[in-house]
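Review box. Two proteins, two foldings.
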Amino acid sequence: MITIKSPREIELLRIAGNVVYKTHKYLEPMIKEGITTAELNRLGEEFIRKQGCTPSFKGCEGYPYAICMSVNSEVVHGFPSNYKLKNGDIITLDIGACWKGYHGDSAWTYAVGEVDDEKKFLMEHTKESLFKGLEQVKPGQRIGDIGHAVEEYALAHNLGVVKELCGHGVGTEVHEDPEVLNYGPGGTGPKIKEGMVIAVEPMLTAGNPDIYLHDNDWTVDTIDGRPSAHYEHTVVVTKDGYEILTGELKKNG
C-alpha cells in the first residue's frame, strides 16, 4: 500500500535523511587508498549513532552491517571487509539511518584516487540518470515515467540498466510501496501524489546489465566483471515537484 506522509512524518523523514547526507559527507574524505571497507563501515555506524539515529540496514532482512560497501563490479549489498581500497577503485556507499522510527536512504558512488575513463563516464552518467528520473517526480506523473526517463538516458549513453533491482517507497520501513523501476514505458504505474516519499536509485553498468549473487546471499555483482555505479536520493513529492530529503536540512520559512 502506498501511503501519503503527514507534515509531521515528513519532518521526521527529513531529519533521518539529513543524517544520511551528513554521514556521506563525513566519510567522503576518508575514501582513500589503503583504508578498509570494514573501517569505513565502523566509522559510519559510529557517526550515525552519535546523531541519535540507528543504522537502518543493520539487521534489515538479516543484512549484518550498517553500511553497504560495493566495490568496482559489485552492484549492491557489498559486505564491509578487510579489503583495502586501491587507487582506481570505485566504491558505492549505500547508507540508511532511522530517526524515531522513520528512515532515510541514499547511495553514492565515489572514486578512489584517479579512476580510468570508463569509470568516470559510468559515474557521471549514472548520477545524471538519477536527476533525469527525478525530473519526472511531480503530482500527476506516473511512477513509470521515472524509470522510462532513467532507461532512456542510460541507453543513450550505452550503459546497462540492472533490471532486477529498483527504488521504492520510504517511511517507517526502509522499503515500502511503490516499487520504482529504472526501466519500462512511461505513463504506467501508480500516479505520483503530493506527500509520497520515494527513493529513486539507478544502478547502471559499463557493460552487460546481467548480474549474479555472491555466496553470501547478499552481494550482487555484474556477470562480466565490468564496473557498476549506483546513485540514490530519498525525496518527498511536493505540490509542484520534489524535495530531496537526503541532502542538507532545509530551513522552514
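Next protein.
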Amino acid sequence: MSQMPPIKVFTDASTAAEIRGYAAEDWVSGFTTNPTLMRKGGVTNYKAFAVEAINAAAGKPLSLEVVADDLELMEEQGRILGSWGCNVVVKIPITTTSGESCVPVVRSLLDAGIRVNVTAIMTDAQVSGLAEVLYPEDEIIVSVFAGRIADSGIDPVPIMRRYVDQLSVFPNAELLWASPREVLNLMQASEIGCHIITVTPDLL
C-alpha cells in the first residue's frame, strides 16, 4: 500500500470487527455502513452495533445511516445518531423511496453542527439541488453512486470530474466515489480529484 494514490479510502463495513481491523491500517481513513450491510453482518440492535463501531473506528470518521423514510423522522434520527460520537457522520439519502428530496433534512442537520454524508446521488439535478443550499463552512460528504452510473452504460469519469469542479467552491465539501466495481476505479477517482472512495473488504 506504499504507492496508494492521494485519495482517502473509506471501507464499507458490516461488522464492528471489520472496522476494528481496518482502523489499525493507516491507509484506511474512515468507514461507511448502511442498514443493508448491517443486516449482512447479523446486526439486530442498531444502537449496540453503532456504539461498538464508533469505538472500533478509533476516531476515524464513521458514516451511520438513518433508517426512516419520511423527512421529520429522518431528521430526528439524524440528530440522535450525530449525538453518539464526535467521529459520526450522519448518512442521509438524497431522496426518500418515493422521490421526495431530503435536502431540507440535510440543511437542518448541517445548521445543527452535524456532519452529513449525502448518499445515493445519481444525477446532475441532485448534485445541483444540494449545492444550492450549501455554505462554505458546511462539513459534508457528497456520495455519488459512480459504480451504478457505470452499470447503466455511462462513463462516470467525466461526470465525477464535473462534480469535483462544481463542489470546489465549498472548501469543506468532499466528493465520494461510491460503489466501485474494480481497482481501476480507485485510480480514476484519484486522478480526477475525488476526495474519497468507498471500497468493500472484498475489493480491498
